[in-house]
Every structure is written in structure tokens, then in C-alpha cells.
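Re: the multi-chain job from yesterday

Posting the exact lines I submitted so nobody has to dig through the queue logs.
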Amino acid sequence: MYKSEQLAKQIRHLIENGTLKAHEKLPSLREQVQISGFSLITVMNAYQELESRGLIYAREKSGYYVSNTIVDVELARPLIVSLNSKVEINSLVFQYLKSIQGEHIVPLGSAFPSQDLVFSKKLTQIMGQIARNKKSYDAIDNLPPGNLFLRKLIAQRYCMQGIPTDADDIVITSGCMDALNLSLQAIACPGDYIVLQQNIFYGALQAAERLGLKVVTIPEHPQHGFDLEAFEHILKTYPVKVCWLMLNAHNPIGFTVNEEIKLKIAELLHQYQVHLIEDDVYEEMYFGQQKPLPMKYYDQNNLVLHCSSFSKTLGAAFRVGWVYAGKYSQHIQHLQLMSTISVNALLQNALVDFISNYHYEKHLRILRKSLQQNKLQFYRYIESHLPKGCKLHYYPGGYFLWLKLPESVSSMQVYEQLIQQNIGISPGQLFNVSEQKSQCLRLNCSFEWNEQFQQAVDTLLHSIGTFEAT
Amino acid sequence: MYKSEQLAKQIRHLIENGTLKAHEKLPSLREQVQISGFSLITVMNAYQELESRGLIYAREKSGYYVSNTIVDVELARPLIVSLNSKVEINSLVFQYLKSIQGEHIVPLGSAFPSQDLVFSKKLTQIMGQIARNKKSYDAIDNLPPGNLFLRKLIAQRYCMQGIPTDADDIVITSGCMDALNLSLQAIACPGDYIVLQQNIFYGALQAAERLGLKVVTIPEHPQHGFDLEAFEHILKTYPVKVCWLMLNAHNPIGFTVNEEIKLKIAELLHQYQVHLIEDDVYEEMYFGQQKPLPMKYYDQNNLVLHCSSFSKTLGAAFRVGWVYAGKYSQHIQHLQLMSTISVNALLQNALVDFISNYHYEKHLRILRKSLQQNKLQFYRYIESHLPKGCKLHYYPGGYFLWLKLPESVSSMQVYEQLIQQNIGISPGQLFNVSEQKSQCLRLNCSFEWNEQFQQAVDTLLHSIGTFEAT
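And the result, C-alpha cells for all chains:
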């Protein structure tokens, strides 16, 4: 046993037998050197070991404290994910995104909705008209926080959901990813704790990594999507600064968390004074009568920064999003002026025209209907041809199906085999850093069902069957 | 005297009397604790004090070393700028940019060229045409590294300057600021040393701050713009990782560095294996027959990342730039996928049409001619009405004039007084963190001379005269 492990074990014993109490400050590194007789390096390694196991936590410029739990995180549900494997995740995502780029690949793995559905002829007509008008290119009016009229229209849409909003609460960004990143930068500092869902859009992991945050992941609840108990446990245990969650038409799995749970999440955020960065980029892609409420609706304390975009509903090439920044507006604008500076003026002006003339609402109604039809068609076909041991998750919203493979089959293997045949799928590992091997994969079902897709799905299901048999 | 100062003084003495030699490793923190009998905190503070004075430098995971100089940086020309005042710089820039936003402000302080000059009717016609075409919005073809045809056209322009370039060397970005930021992130890590010019586009300082870099500034050479001697001194003294320089139509001062000096800079970069992020956003705004060569031309070792944009020549609202990334292309694309994801497809497609049909070259010829005329008109008027003690710097390129005020006048005071009268100017402090008070200001002279500008300039000159008299 290394010296540091020896020391870690000693301290752990003191925590477990109650000698060191929850939130009690540990001796400083120097003090511990004197107490234990070990070297500074050994003490540091021991503290890091205990921290990575969730038994102690660090407060900036203050030192180490005992966590509010003696449960070893290896056994408990919430896991601290060591982000040491970060570079591989990035290259994995990158290679993957590169591999499915290209017109010859069947886009079951794509993150983008079918261009046939999101393309709006009306919007392109408006673009065509205003593109000839010099006024449409004015830079000044479109500097951060962005075009005033567009912000007013976005604010109105929040108001219609019962969320009091002013144009000045909104900051226009270069897509939702930009909004999420800027929000996280405004809230969190290196070393802060962030809560992420165990399966999550890979951009969240990359953003946390880039900012040097400590990531605590929360597992999905098998029934409700969101595990309140685990969430509360995490907030009790760690000095969490911020969460980044997706609760409507969750990517990659697809669930939408119910209102009761959202209300309780809001209460917990308030109780622990934790900020939430809410990724709600699929908010318009609900199938029912009622648009699901965002967490922003339950936010009484300016703790929620709600991020969304037009890129999912009008085309990924658009790159116009926004954040409900509230009192963080100034800070986020600062950060914008240091990065993208502003969002293209013409696009902002075109959206003003498009939305204010009710074209957007009409577009969304048709889009939702078509998405539902297409997704159902994929679902029915796959469900009725499902190989033994598979489980297909269908949720009424978004355009993804989440397919759980039999225990013995790795989604990465299936991906590797299919990409050889020019079929793209999204292996679950892209969305989950804590699993070495994933049995899940995400299928994009926004496309109109046709022979090409049926063949691709047949190939996929056959491939799963082959792996299962071996 | 604090204990740490006492220790710092002792070590400094050892360096100055030659006991500790250049590049010799200092005792580790722990060793120094034992040697000196001081506490760890005292030793750390002493080392930091010596580091901030340039007497020692840190190497990651290795420790502290003696710098190659016994000259105290307080006396020598190159200065280490402590970036502790960083937040103020950001808010200053932010407040300033906000204050000159608005149509009622005379835009002498603007960073953007006159919209009358950069607006291209032809480009808007193209936009109008292709905006109606569904193909123009395709997301996949425009993901990082960006539209292939646009990258080919940009590569061709490099080739025409004698710089061998392949489409794959280029990455399209959301403007030049985005290109610069991505490049810096790809090259530098927190704690690395960066060389910046003493007067520089404020974005460079903000980017360095955001990444936690140690900034060494190099003063402008009164004759040549760039001080080679100081540059070599810095590279000798500090373990510099990267430089961020602007050498063509420098913002804010305006000079273009000659080819002889550029060649020597390249040699020094090679000798010390230091990367250069080259901000060349004004590259097209030369007034002579020959486009000034970028540092990329002299780069034999893939050390230069050349960044530029269409935003200065076609309108600030455009937000399309690029970086000659070479072997850093993959890394920069990774970073893009974590931030803006991609650049609007329509804009990329419109630029392909515009450039490939030679409209861009024609547009640039007219733009350059008009800029030269306008700038000359401003120059002649101001020069012939210059208050006593002022010095006006005119350089044949770009659209800024750099005005040095008399010793007793602060540019911030002038700015404060003028903004009350709805006239915007750029006080020198925005571009120079090391000066507490700046006597310089930047004037945007891209506009067609008219009565409004004459009145604004008269008010400015009168205001300077008033301050001078008091």
C-alpha cells in the first residue's frame, strides 16, 4: 500500500467512526504534514483520493471539509465522475461527428431534425426580401444583447407560458450551445461542483471539462426520468454551485419530467441556493396539447438560466439561440463581446419578421405533427421487429428513440459495423462518461419513413441479432 | 517588512550577485521551507513576488528557475502587466461599447468601418437569390471546418500572396475574434506566458485574462512600430509560449511593420519555438499597390496561426472569419464543436458565390480607394486645426487616426465630455492596461467627410484646447 493510501485509510476511518463530523474542517495540508509525519505530496495525494471518493470536499481558499455522508460513492448511486478521461471523450465525439458527416450516410445517428421538416419556405422568402435591404445588415442594432424586437418577441412567448419576462431578460446568442456555454461561464468558476445527468448531451460534459469543474452525475430514474432522491442526496453532500439539466424531451433518452418533480427540483434549488442552467432546446417538440413548462416557470429566485434556440425548429444551419439571462444579462454580454461579439444581423431581422407575422407558430404546428407521425412510424416498425433482449423507449416528444441492446452487445460495436455500411447511429457512450461500455443507442426518427430507412433499420436490427448470437 | 519580502530580497540578492545563475532551478517550495525556516505560505509568496518581477519563472510540474536577466523589470522596457485589474478593463470596455451604441452618437469612436463603404449591393443581391434556395441552408456541408468551397477560395487568396495553402489548412469561424480565441485556446494553457503589444485591441487582453495567461507586454517602437530588441529580450528572459500580434494596419495606432522586421520576428519565433497568433483583420485595408505580407508568409515551421475576417470589409454584422490553422485544424474544430458549433450556412454559401465571381476583389478595390480618401480628408482637417501640444499619427492603411494629446490632458476626460454631446471617441486606455492614464485617442475616419463630422471634430479639438488651458 502506498503511503498516501495508508493516510487516506486512516482519515476515512475517522470519518466513518464519527470522529470527524460532516462539514468539519480537516487539518490543512501543512498541519497534516506535521500531524502525520508524511510528506506534503503524500498528504496531497491522500486528500485527493478522499475527495475523488466523495468523502471530503474542497472549498476555495479555505481547505478541505468532511462530506455529509459516510456512504462510499462506489456503492451509492450518485457518482463523481473523474474527468481524467476527458480527452478521449472529446476525440470520440469529434471522430463520431466527422464520420456521420456526408450525404452518403443514412442519418439515423444525426442530432439534427430532418431538413425537410424544419425548412420553412416562408422564412426563406423573408430572407430573400430583406437580404436586399441595407438596413437589415446594421451591426449596431444587433450587438449584444441582440435585436430588441427579436428579444421582445421571445419575451412574449415566455409571458404566454405564464413566465413574466421583459425583453431585457433575454440575450441572443449564436445557437443554444453558445447560450449554455456563456451561462455556465457566468455562473461557475474552476473547481466548482456541477451536477449533470448521467446521460446528457455531450456538449455539457465538454463545457464542464473546459471550465475545470468537478462533475457529479445523477442517474436517470427508471420511471420518472429524474431521480429526486439522488438529487437531494447530492445537494446535501456536495457544495454544488450549479446544475445543467435537460428535463423536456431529454437528449438522448427522450423523457419529459412531470410538473410535480419540476416543482420539487425548484424547491431544492432554492433551499440549497444552487443555479440551474436549463437546456430546453427541444421545448417546441412536444406531441400533446400543452407545451411542457420549463424549470424557469417555477423559478422564484433568479436561479434558472433558460437556454433555447431556433436551430432545432428552423434548421441547424441557422445558429440563432438565446438565454433567459435575467440579472446575468450584463455578465453574459461581457462574455459575448470577448468571443463571438454578436449574432448575424440579417438572421435576427428575418426572425423578427417571421415570428411577428405568426409564421413561426404555424410552422411549429406542422412540424410537431410531422415529427409525431414520423417518430411513430419508426417506433412501430422497430418495435415489431425488435431482436430478443432489446428494449425500445418511446416518449411523446422530440425525435429520438432510445434503444437498449441485450447485455452482451456493445453499442460501439454496432456503430462500427453499421458505419462500414454507410449507416450512422449514435452509440450511448457519447452521452455517458461514467460507463466504459454502453448498451444503448440513439436513433433519429425525424425523417419520413421510406425504403432507404427501412433497409437501414433492417440492417441495424440484423446487426444486433448477429452480435447477440455470437 | 513582511517575512516573504525579506525572503524575496535574500533570493534576489543571490541572483544579482551571480550565486544563482540563469536557468538554474531554485529549491522546491518544501526544500525552501527547510532551508529558510519560513512557512510554506511565506515561501510561496516570496516566489510569487520574484516571479511577478520577472526574476524567476515557473515551469509546469517542474518548479521555479532563475530568469536570464538580472535587470529588474521595473527599470527595463518590457513590462509584466499584472492582470489583477482585469475586471475593471472588461467593464470599462463594456460600458464604453454600450455608450457609443445608438444612432444618435457620432461614431468617431466606432471600431466598425462606415456601413456606406462596406455595404455591397451585389452581395445582398446574391443573398436575396440564394436565400430562397433550400440547398443554401444545408447544415452538414457547413459544419467545421466550414464550407469546402469557401475554404478553397480563401486558400487561393493565400496562394496568390505566395503562401502555399490547402483548403484543409483553413477553418471558418464566427468572425475574427472567434478565430483568435479558438487559436489561443488551442495553443496556450493556464499559466503560460503570452507576449502582447502594449497597445492592442482590447479583445487580446480579455482573451489572455480568460485563459489565465501571464502577460508580458512589448512597447511600440517609436519609428518602426515593433521593437525587435525588446522582443528578443523578452523571448530570452521568459519561457514564452505564444505571441498575439497585429503588424498590418495596427489597431489602434495604425502602423504597418516593414518586411525586414517581420522576417526577423519569424527568425526569433523559430529560434525560441514560440507560436504566433496573428491578428490580421485589417489586411485588405492597405493604401499602396502591394498588400502587406502577413507573418504567415515567413513561417517555415507552422508556428503562425493567421486570423482574419470578412467583417471589416463586408460589414460587422456578417460575423464570418477564418483561421489559417494548418496542423491545429482538428484541435480548433474540437473547440468549435464545444462553442458555436458552426457558422451560418447561408452566409458561407453567399460568400462562395460573391468571391468566386470576382465581386469581392472589385469591392475591395473600391473600398480601399474610398477609405484612403476619407481618412486623408479627416487627417488634413485635424492636422491643420491641431491644438498646441498634440501629435497626430497618420499611416497609409486602415481607417484609424491616432491622436496624442498634450501631457496635461487625459483622453478619458475628453471622452467623458464628448459623450455628453453625443460624440463617441476611443480613449487610449481601452487598448493599454499598463498605463493608468492615457494621453492618446483613436478616431475612426472611414466616414465620408461632411458637416456633422466637421462639427464633431471641431468640438473634439475645442474640448482638448479647454483641458489644455485649465
